């Protein structure tokens, strides 16, 4: 009889005390083990290969010139992305405008800057003084020397920002289009202008679509800054090149550049994840953090969801 009472109590246990036992997948664990073994063998091979010259890597990893180049790379990324975001919003709104002239101008901008290589654009801005030795901006009395105005750093900012602005405009346009058209109609019925509707209603809702690709473009921008080394801008890669041209040790210096690019990219990736999570707060279920995913993976019993036992 006691065993019957126990069975009865287990059968009539409250739903919130029931748990679900996850199905075992031995094939997944086997595949994970194989990947870990291959990764360990690769790391061991790299660390034990004397040709990588890890002592030189350790010597120059925190070198002052490398640090200055890293800081300039981060600064270029931030400034260029800020320019591209402003241009992206402006061009996207022009692309969606009812004015055909604005639409045509925005389309021409995107067509040109997406259709030509970034390296060519950087070289063009660097040599723009050959076309316009004096820049006046169409204003009387303004005569600026282009050689003094367009420095290598200025050419780098113009090239990176204007090129990225074309891609960013398509990201923003996709986000705006993703918002239901009825939102704009409701705002117009309430007496809001088109600018107020865009600023207060459409763009905040479009951020869920805009943020993820913008994060990816920020990481791409970080790596694209390496192209400014052709303009002799002392970014991270150019600083490494200066050192290995003097020491004739290209491999360890390039490894140092790779290490710092990976460090900054990792920080940006983590930041992007939490920014996306913040803009997803309106969803019923927020995306799990890496720690929550690990806990779920290692957990044998998980609580049964309400209503699933009916």
From TrEMBL:
Membrane-crossing residue ranges in chain numbering: 29-47, 70-94, 250-275
Pfam entry (one): BPD_transp_1
Record Gene3D superfamilies: MetI-like
GO biological process: amino acid transport
UniProt domain ABC transmembrane type-1: residue ranges: 70-272
Localisation: Cell membrane
Name listed for the protein in its UniProt record: Amino acid ABC transporter
Organism (species): Streptomyces iranensis
């Amino acid at each position: 009889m006691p065993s019957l009472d126990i069975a009865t109590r287990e059968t009539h246990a409250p739903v919130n005390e029931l748990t679900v036992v996850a199905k075992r997948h031995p094939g997944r664990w086997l595949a994970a083990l194989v990947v870990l073994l291959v990764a360990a063998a690769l790391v061991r091979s790299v660390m034990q290969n004397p040709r990588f010259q890890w002592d030189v890597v350790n010597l120059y990893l925190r070198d002052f010139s490398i640090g200055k180049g890293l800081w300039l790379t981060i600064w270029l990324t931030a400034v260029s992305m800020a320019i591209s975001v402003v241009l992206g919003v402006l061009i996207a709104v022009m692309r969606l405008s009812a004015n055909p002239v604005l639409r045509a101008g925005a389309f021409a901008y995107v067509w040109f800057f997406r259709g030509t290589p970034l390296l060519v654009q950087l070289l063009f801005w660097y040599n723009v003084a050959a076309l316009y030795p004096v820049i006046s901006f169409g204003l009387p009395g303004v005569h600026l020397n282009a050689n003094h105005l367009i420095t290598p750093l200025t050419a780098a900012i113009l090239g990176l920002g204007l090129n990225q602005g074309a891609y960013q405009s398509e990201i923003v346009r996709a986000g705006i289009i993703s918002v239901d058209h009825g939102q704009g109609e409701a705002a117009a019925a309430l007496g809001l202008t088109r600018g107020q509707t865009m600023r207060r209603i459409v763009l905040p809702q479009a951020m869920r679509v805009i943020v993820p690709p913008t994060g990816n473009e920020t990481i791409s921008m970080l790596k694209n800054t390496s192209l400014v080394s052709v303009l002799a801008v002392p970014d991270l890669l150019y600083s490494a090149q200066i050192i290995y041209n003097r020491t004739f040790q290209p491999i360890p210096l390039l490894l140092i550049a790779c290490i710092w690019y990976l460090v900054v990219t990792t920080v940006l990736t983590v930041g992007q994840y939490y920014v996306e999570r913040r803009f997803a707060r309106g969803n019923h279920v927020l995306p799990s953090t890496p720690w929550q995913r690990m806990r779920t993976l290692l957990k044998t019993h998980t609580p049964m969801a309400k209503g699933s036992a009916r």
